[in-house]
Amino acid sequence: SRWGAGMGTLAGASSNSAYGTVARPGSSMQPLTPFLLLFLATPRAQAVTSADCWVGGWTPEICCSAPGARGNPLCWDHVYTYDKCCTETEEGIQFDLRRRNFVSNMVRRGATVHFDIRHVSGGRTGAVASRTLSARSTVLRVPATQVYSIKSVPPLVADVARRHSCDAHATLSLGLAMERVNPESILTDWIRLLPMSFANVLWFSGRQLQLVNATFFNYIVQNWYGDLECMKRVAEEISPSLWRGRPLSAEDLRWALSVVKTRGFAFEGTRESTMLIPLADFLNHNMVANVRTATLAEDALRFVATRSIMPGEELCIDYAQASNLEFLVRYGFRVEDNPYGGRQFDLGGEPLQAHCPSYILRYDTQDIVENATVDCHRQARYLSFEQQFGTLAVHEQVREDRYIYSAIAEACTQLLSMLIAPGPLSEHETHAGGTEGITSVLVREIEAERQLLQRCVNNFQIRNEELEPRPVSAVLAEPLARLRGQDSASAETLLEERHNPPPPPASSGHWDLAGGYAGSSMERSPDFVSPRRPQAPSNFGGDGRPVEGAGRSQGGLFVSQDDRQRVDQLLWRLQQGISIS
Question: Is the pTM of this model over 0.90?
Answer without folding.
Answer: no
